[in-house]
TrEMBL record, chain A:
This is ATP-binding cassette domain-containing protein. Belongs to the ABC transporter superfamily. GO terms for molecular function: ATP binding; ATP hydrolysis activity. It comes from the Bacteria. Signal peptide: none annotated. SMART domains: AAA. Residues 3-234 form the ABC transporter domain. It comes from Paracoccus litorisediminis. The keyword Magnesium does not apply.
From TrEMBL, chain B:
It is a multi-pass membrane protein. Keywords: Cell membrane, Membrane, Transmembrane, Transmembrane helix, Transport. This is Iron chelate uptake ABC transporter family permease subunit. PANTHER family: ABC TRANSPORTER PERMEASE PROTEIN MJ0876-RELATED, FERRIC ENTEROBACTIN TRANSPORT SYSTEM PERMEASE PROTEIN.
Length: 257, 348
């Protein structure tokens, strides 16, 4: 599913948080959002999900304006994993993932065997199958994060929006998650902090002060000049002798002035 | 596969019917107990006789005075108690789920105080007429109080503690307004009556009140039942509910409207009875879990039974005297409130 945004703007308390962002993400593409803290990555994702009512501009899915699609229909096409998800309700891991079926159920379409199978599959995909009866309050940050991703998968969306999904995860689960995202036949927009992980995306958009200042293939984007200008770091591009992939190594430039 | 699905669906539905029937039996037994027990306990046989006479026209041998006590006094009183208990418990449950606050309850958030003010204003100043007029006044007061408390909580930063503090401010304001109206306009006898009613009192309840309380409780219950999945989706907050496909605004308006209606009508009938909305949903979460499919019917049933029990206790606690029912619910509710506070200490 193609997701496009034109002239997105969001102002809050007199501050411009998103300042005229245009985007066009092709079906099946994995699009990475990078940028320093506070550059507007999370807010842009919320705008793409249609969660900010005050936003100006337009988001569309396959050419249909998001504002004219009922919420339930949006939730069947597009799933979002925000950075923070907390509850004090005493839910089991499995019940959290079951929430993902909400947009598909109604009084006429009650929970069925198919829903159970989809939830099983989603739990399996994030490696939480064995912990499905554990209460939410006993799970670690990483386990909660994986459950939220499973919940999003259980929505069976065609667009997946992920806000720094590798936060809280140990390195094994970070790599497993990125591989899962790459293999999914979905359009994915993913905000990432780790620029080496961002190199795995099809395309990258660089956010700075609410604007998208660069957009293109990772190799064109992650250049020493841009990294110095936007992220205020120096970078050296190294080659991993094992498989010849490129790796960025960063060094501080502000203290060495 | 299809067969398995059909068998599964049949099993699911039969389980549902069994549970519904069980719930209704428990409710009927509670109502029966509420009618039998009182200052002077009446034998089951007499109660059965009167009910059979009134409902099916069976021949009756019961003394007309006893029959009058059963039919005109205890039965409507017990039915209104059940409706109020269910309505207040559901109100508390919905508020706790929607505002994501374990301490949300119509009494603590000042909604009941606003309803009292509205009801008193109508009673004393004679705006409108009869039970409907008083309920309409209570609804306006409840809605106003809710609006003010919500706006204040938001202006104060919208935290869990802020909401409860805003509720205290709202309760104080509306209780002061109530006292002001009474001092300004009521004569001594009216004032005494109103003060007694404010503490919660089912003594004056008659059949017309049943005709108001029962439909409102049923409408409130239905509003909750059709939004069971939406309520579940609020587990991770309103934003998460929206991304799960819930039309958050519409659901909020519908459910908070139902809460305001239920609280207003119940308060206008029996006074500001506190803590049911707080205690019952928490107890039910402990028993049936956090999912609203079980929580909504369980809370409605337990609220009804709890209120009937509180009413019976209020009648028999001091012989020859009726303790206000709000006193009984507060004696149980305040310690429970303390318990919930302590349990939530790490989450605030």
């Amino acid at each position: 599913m193609r997701i496009t945004a034109t002239k997105l703007v969001l102002q809050a308390q007199g501050r411009t948080i998103i300042d005229g962002v245009d985007l066009d993400i092709a079906p099946g593409e994995t699009f990475g959002l990078i940028g320093p803290n506070g550059s507007g990555k999370s807010t842009l994702l919320r705008l793409l999900a249609g969660l900010e009512r005050r936003a100006g501009g337009e988001v569309s899915l396959d050419g249909h304006n998001l504002r004219r699609i009922p919420r339930r229909e949006i939730a069947r096409r597009l799933a979002m994993v925000e950075q923070q998800a907390e509850t004090t309700d005493c839910l089991s891991a499995r019940q959290v993932v079951e929430l993902g079926r909400t947009p598909w159920l109604s009084a006429l379409v009650p929970w069925g065997a198919k829903d159970t199978a989809i939830v099983d599959e989603a739990l399996y995909a994030v490696g939480m199958k064995g912990m499905s009866s554990r209460p939410w309050s006993t799970l670690s940050g990483g386990e909660r994060q994986r459950l939220q991703i499973a919940r999003a998968l259980a929505q069976r969306p065609r667009v997946l929006l992920l806000d720094e999904p590798t936060n809280h995860l140990d390195i094994h689960h970070q790599l497993a998650l990125l591989r899962l995202v790459e293999e999914l036949p979905l359009t994915v927009v993913i905000a990432l902090h780790d620029l080496n992980q961002a190199m795995g995306c099809d395309r990258l958009g660089v956010m700075s002060q609410g604007r998208m200042v660069a957009c293109g293939k990772p190799a064109e984007i992650l250049t020493p000049d841009l990294l110095r200008a936007i992220f205020r770091v120096g970078a050296t591009l190294l080659t991993d002798p094992q498989d010849n992939t490129k790796v960025l190594r960063f060094h501080d430039i502000e203290n060495s002035r | 596969m299809t067969e398995a699905v059909i068998i599964g669906a049949v099993a699911w539905h039969s389980r549902l019917i069994v549970r519904l029937a069980l719930g209704l039996v428990v409710l009927a037994l509670a109502v029966l107990a509420g009618v039998i027990l009182g200052e002077t306990p009446l034998p089951v046989s007499q109660v059965g006789d009167v009910l059979a006479h009134k409902l099916w026209g069976a021949a009756s041998t019961v003394d007309p005075i006893d029959a009058g006590i059963i039919w005109n006094y205890r039965l409507p009183r017990t039915l209104v108690a059940a409706a109020c208990g269910a309505g207040l418990a559901l109100s508390g449950l919905v508020l706790q789920t929607l505002v994501r606050n374990a301490l949300a309850d119509p009494y603590l958030l000042g909604v009941s105080a606003g309803a009292s003010t509205g009801a008193v204003a109508v009673t004393i100043m004679g705006i409108g007429a009869g039970a409907i007029g008083i309920s309409a006044g209570a609804f306006a007061g409840a809605a106003l109080a809710f609006g003010i408390v919500a706006a204040l909580a938001r202006a104060a930063g919208g935290g869990s503690g802020q909401l409860v503090l805003a509720g205290i401010a709202g309760s104080q304001l509306f209780n002061a307004l109530t006292s002001f109206f009474i001092a300004k306009s009521a004569n001594a006898e009216q004032a005494r009556g109103i003060m007694f009613w404010l503490l919660g009192n089912l003594s004056g309840v008659r059949w017309p009140d049943v005709g108001l309380a029962l439909p409102v409780a049923v409408v409130g219950l239905l509003a909750c039942v059709i939004h069971i999945r939406a309520l579940d989706a609020f587990s991770f907050g309103a934003s998460a509910a929206a991304s799960l496909g819930i039309a958050v605004r519409r659901v909020m308006v519908m459910l908070l409207g139902a809460v305001t209606l239920m609280t207003a009508v119940m308060v206008s009938l029996v006074g500001a009875v506190g803590f049911i909305g707080l205690v019952v949903p928490h107890a039910m979460r402990f028993l049936v879990g956090a999912r609203h499919g079980a929580l909504v019917p369980a809370s409605a049933l337990a609220g009804a039974v709890f209120m009937i029990a509180a009413d019976v206790v209020s009648r028999v606690l001091i012989p020859g005297q009726v303790v206000p029912i709000g006193v009984v619910t507060a004696l149980v509710g305040a310690p429970a409130f303390a318990l919930i506070l302590i349990r939530n200490r790490n989450r605030a």
